[in-house]
Amino acid sequence: MTRGNQRERDRAKAQKAAQKQKTATNKSGSEMLRDKDRVAQIMREKQQKAEEKKAEASGGGGASKK
Fold first, then answer.
1. What is the dihedral of CA 12, 13, 17, 19, to 10 degrees?
2. Of the four, 1, 12, 21, 65, which is 20 to 30 A from 49 by CA?
3. Whole-angstrom Cα distance, residue 65 to residue 37?
4. Which residue ranges does the record assign to the Small EDRK-rich factor-like N-terminal domain (predicted)?
5. Domain ranges of the chain
6. What is each CA distance from 35 to 17, 29, 40, 44, 47, in whole angstroms?
C-alpha cells in the first residue's frame, strides 16, 4: 500500500467533522419537549386572537352589507 496513514488521517478528520455536527442540538429530551410545548401554546394564543379578530370583522361587516 502506497497510501501510508492517509486513510487513518481521513477517518480522524471525518470523525471531527461529524462531532461538530452533533453538537448543534445540545438539549435533552425534556428540554426539547418543554420548548415545543411553549411554542405550541404561543401558536394557540395567536390562532385564538386571529379567530376573535375574524369574528369581530365578520360580525360587524356582515349585518351592514344587506
1. 20
2. 65
3. 42
4. 1-32
5. 3-59
6. 28, 10, 9, 14, 18
Cα–Cα distance, 8 to 12 (Å, whole number): 6
pLDDT of residue 49: 96
DSSP tag of 58? H
Grid coordinates given for 20 = 461538530
| Integer Cα distance of 58 and 65 in angstroms | 10
Query: Does residue 27 contact residue 35 with C-beta atoms inside 8 Å?
Result: yes
| Residue whose entry in the numeric block shows the C-alpha cell 352589507 | 65
